[in-house]
């Protein structure tokens, strides 16, 4: 065991020997300050991101007095209360708000994925006049936030008599999600071997079916990625629902929650319960799609 | 089943690069033609032009009596096997093979029958339920061939199908391909850079160089009667020796002067053919197998040549001997029993009956 004298110098062998010799414990932690620092930063960031959410969920199960008395305490036997949930689920139109949000999010996502994948396929696969310009136009869409056009969009929707409809929101969100979707999906499509498309062509497969039956199944991980990227901002958006569909019947959940926040009195039980509930669907959607985020789906296609 | 004819086909790209420069090639029904192209120069372009995956810039391509210039690949009734197999990764082996038939709305029983038959020919019946990722390279290549066979197309196109396989499997699959062709007899165009594949598989070999056809012919003809220095050097392994030389008169006959001291007699039958080349700088082409140890009985056209051995490479069934004549490195194939040692002197017999005389500048064989 010559390494015991200078354990830090040869981390590899020292670590190997440690597994053989339980008394030698000195070296392995010392060699990884960089990894430790990275993890410290990541853990700190995770706490920063999750603690407020945790605080909201925690306090949504507490009575009003307990929320203000000790906001950082966990709900105990004395402080536990479902009054917020009862209020939210019983009283207002929260069910309708949820349905609106789910409708808008899912339909927009579907359209973004369908049109995004088709546009990406066309831009990658076919050379046509203006294809370069079109790709550039779409990438500008990534850089310029769609909210800059809010006033024009509002005017357009009013002119089309689409104000206070979910359709208006779907149109806007589809436009908002498309550039990024096209960008990500065309990267993935470029990685699909050319020969696969050519093989399908030689096999006699028409172009539309090449896309839907050969290419699209291979894009599943990419589509899941885009789906996650698309649904989260749509679900969380307050801006466009407030602008385009503030009517009672078309409010989304993020907008609907605002009715619990008054100018003088805020119903914190209601707000916190509604916020906690609003997290649930998007988490479920995320879990569904993240299961598809498996790479290596093209394994076996070539080589 | 169909003949393929390529008439004055040209392919040039926007940058002005001409990948294929006016090719003429007639391929008969049921023929197995191998395009052998050295690595690099637009190897698959010709094949992809026949398949319809590349537009042609000029000329005509006919398949089975139809002009197909403007017909998309799916209507050309061809089947292509790709270098990297290009199997549909999300489909089972059965579905990979059946996909093209399903699209053409073949009845279910017919699809089943054809796939089973192809699977039997290729010995992949046990694999039909698997996904491509669960197959080895050789199995994938069989599936790719199966996908082509079930279609019963007019023409098979093979784009370097064996170059991703390891050496042993390549030899095995080469035999498989030949066997398949013998049983289905579909017109086949096969592209490779491997001259051994070309020689072993082809009814006719087409040697291409820089987008042009150098020579077309049966493998034996290309080996014995190459038309150009390129073909002579490309076909055969180890490659033919090219020795700068000059023709001189040797009495009534001619002789090849390799250096101050070396003068080899040319067979009398070739005197008339070679006479016009007297005095000009020429190249003597002689294959290593025609530069051997003296054998009994001596060949009538054998000329003796003493060389200083540089390197000896025993191959088992034969031994390769490397040496220098004048300033040109050369190689001979000798019997393993021949006592060749590096640094020693070895007496060789040059079989001048098998010599090729090549114009130095033009590269054409006289």
| Silhouette of chain A | globular
Residues in helix, % of chain B: 10-25%
Strand content of chain A: under 5%
Largest sheet of chain B: 6 strands, mixed
Unreliable residue runs of chain A:
1-26
What does this structure look like?
The complex is a heterodimer of chains A (303) and B (366). In chain A, 67% of the residues lie in helices and 0% in strands. With 303 residues, chain A is mainly alpha-helical. By secondary structure, chain B is an alpha+beta fold. The mean pLDDT of chain B is 88. In chain B, the strands form 4 sheets. Chain B has a 6-stranded mixed β-sheet, with helices on both faces. A 5-stranded antiparallel β-sheet of chain B has the order 13-12-11-14-20. In chain B, strands 15-19-16-17-18 form a 5-stranded antiparallel β-sheet, with no helix packed on it. The chains are: A mainly alpha (303), B alpha+beta (366).
Please outline the helices and strands.
The complex is a heterodimer of chains A (303) and B (366).
Chain A: H1 11-20, H2 33-60, H3 64-69, H4 83-90, H5 94-125, H6 131-143, H7 150-159, H8 166-191, H9 194-202, H10 207-218, H11 220-236, H12 239-244, H13 253-256, H14 268-290
Chain B: E1 4-12, E2 18-27, E3 32-36, H1 45-51, E4 58-63, E5 66-67, E6 78-81, H2 93-103, H3 108-122, H4 137-149, E7 155-159, H5 167-184, E8 187-192, H6 195-201, E9 204-209, E10 212-217, H7 219-224, H8 229-234, E11 241-250, E12 253-257, E13 263-265, H9 271-274, E14 281-286, E15 291-292, E16 302-314, E17 319-325, E18 328-334, E19 345-351, E20 356-359
Helix pairs in contact in B: 2-3, 2-4, 3-4
């Amino acid at each position: 065991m010559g390494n015991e004298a200078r354990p830090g110098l040869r981390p590899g062998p020292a670590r190997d020997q440690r597994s053989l010799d339980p008394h030698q414990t000195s070296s392995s932690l010392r060699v990884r300050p960089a990894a430790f620092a990275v993890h410290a930063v990541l853990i700190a960031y995770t706490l920063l991101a999750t603690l407020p959410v945790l605080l909201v969920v925690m306090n949504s199960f507490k009575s009003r007095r307990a929320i203000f008395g000790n906001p950082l305490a966990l709900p105990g036997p004395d402080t536990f209360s479902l009054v917020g949930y009862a209020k939210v689920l019983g009283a207002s139109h929260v069910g309708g708000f949820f349905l609106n949000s789910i409708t808008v999010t899912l339909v927009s996502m579907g359209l973004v994925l369908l049109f995004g994948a088709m546009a990406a396929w066309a831009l990658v696969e076919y050379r046509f006049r203006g294809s370069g310009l079109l790709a550039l136009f779409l990438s500008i869409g990534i850089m310029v936030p769609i909210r800059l056009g809010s006033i024009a969009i509002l005017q357009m929707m009013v002119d089309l008599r689409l104000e206070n409809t979910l359709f208006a929101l779907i149109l806007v969100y589809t436009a908002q999600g498309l550039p990024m979707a096209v960008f990500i999906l065309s990267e993935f499509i470029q990685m699909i071997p050319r020969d696969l498309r050519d093989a399908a062509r030689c096999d006699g497969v028409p172009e539309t079916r090449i896309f839907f039956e050969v290419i699209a199944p291979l894009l599943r991980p990419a589509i899941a990625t885009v789906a996650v990227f698309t649904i989260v901002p749509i679900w969380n958006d307050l801006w466009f629902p407030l602008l385009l569909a503030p009517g009672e019947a078309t409010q989304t959940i993020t907008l609907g929650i605002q009715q619990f926040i008054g100018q003088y009195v805020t119903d914190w039980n209601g707000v916190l319960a509604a916020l906690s509930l609003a997290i649930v669907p998007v988490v479920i959607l995320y879990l569904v799609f993240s299961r598809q985020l498996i790479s290596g789906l093209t394994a076996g296609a070539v080589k | 089943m169909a003949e393929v004819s390529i008439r004055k086909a040209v392919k040039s790209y926007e940058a002005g690069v001409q990948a294929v420069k006016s090719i003429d090639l007639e391929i008969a029904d049921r023929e197995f033609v191998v395009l052998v192209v050295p690595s690099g120069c637009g190897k698959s372009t010709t094949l992809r032009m026949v398949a319809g995956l590349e537009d042609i810039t000029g000329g005509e391509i006919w398949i089975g009596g139809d002009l197909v210039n403007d017909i998309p690949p799916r209507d050309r009734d061809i089947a292509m096997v790709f270098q990297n197999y290009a199997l549909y990764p999300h489909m089972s082996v059965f579905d990979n093979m059946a996909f093209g038939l399903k699209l053409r709305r073949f009845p279910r029983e017919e699809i089943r029958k054809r796939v089973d038959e192809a699977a039997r020919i290729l010995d992949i019946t046990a694999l039909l339920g698997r996904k491509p990722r669960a197959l080895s390279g050789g199995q994938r290549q069989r599936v790719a061939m199966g996908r082509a066979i079930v279609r019963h197309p007019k023409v098979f196109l093979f784009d370097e199908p064996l170059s991703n396989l390891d050496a042993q499997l390549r030899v095995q699959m080469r035999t498989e391909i030949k066997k398949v062709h013998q049983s289905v007899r579909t017109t086949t165009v096969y592209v490779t850079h491997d001259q051994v594949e070309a020689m072993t598989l082809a009814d006719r070999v087409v040697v291409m160089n820089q987008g042009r056809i150098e020579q077309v012919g049966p493998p034996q003809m290309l080996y014995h009667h190459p038309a150009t220095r390129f073909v002579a050097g490309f076909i055969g392994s180890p490659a033919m020796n090219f020795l700068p030389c000059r023709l001189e008169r040797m009495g009534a006959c001619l002789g090849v002067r390799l250096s101050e001291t070396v003068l080899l007699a040319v067979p009398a039958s070739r005197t008339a053919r070679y006479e016009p080349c007297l005095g000009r700088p020429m190249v003597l082409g002689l294959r290593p197998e025609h530069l051997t140890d003296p054998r009994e009985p001596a060949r009538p056209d054998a000329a003796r040549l003493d060389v200083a051995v540089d390197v000896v490479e025993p191959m088992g069934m034969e031994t390769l001997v490397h040496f220098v004549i004048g300033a040109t490195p050369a190689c001979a194939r000798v019997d393993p029993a021949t006592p060749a040692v590096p640094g020693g002197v070895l007496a060789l017999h040059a079989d001048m009956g098998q010599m090729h005389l090549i114009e130095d500048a033009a590269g054409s064989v006289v």
